[in-house]
Amino acid sequence: MNLTSQQALQLRRLSREDNAAIAAVIRTVSAEYGLTADKGYTVADPNLDELYQLYSQPGHAYWVVEQAGKVVGGGGIAPLTCGEPGICELQKMYFLPSARGQGMAKKLALMALEHAREQGFTRCYLETTAFLKEAIALYEHLGFAHIDAPLGCTGHVDCEVRMLKSL
């Protein structure tokens, strides 16, 4: 692990000025893994270019990872749409290659889960795809369990990996 680059990574709340940068990160990482909009992945979300506005709502939060003044990743938490009360969703966890392998995804996920607990959520749901092996390993490490049926109305029909964690 490169200590210099790790020290340069900073985690902070999303600001309005970050909208274009985090949307670009999500589009870049999605393209890297072949996660196209036509298959219902995050790049198809109509609010992708306005994440600050979305995550400024009650019960929502989003953090970005910054390196040398540039947004290189992010992730957030929000109430599960059309879900049972008390269930939130870990959302839009994307990191450029320069931000990977340095513990920031774990740190961000733990921060999001703590925020969810503070907001009164009792369970956290997520959807991903088998292409994102590193992400799945992280979620398993954090105590997420695989479940068969999807929860809520996420619209991510091709996210075949579904996981749930009690908070």
Automatic annotation (TrEMBL):
Q: Coiled-coil region(s) at which residues? A: none
Acyltransferase keyword on record: yes
Record-annotated N-acetyltransferase domain positions: 9-167
Q: Which GO terms describe its molecular function?
A: acyltransferase activity
Instruction: Cite the EC number.
Output: 2.3.-.-
Which controlled-vocabulary keywords does the entry list?
Answer: Acyltransferase, Transferase
- A Pfam family (short name) is Acetyltransf_1
Its top-level enzyme class, in one word, is transferase
Q: Which CDD domains match?
A: NAT_SF
Question: What is the designated name of this protein?
Answer: GNAT family N-acetyltransferase
- Species name for this entry? Pseudenterobacter timonensis
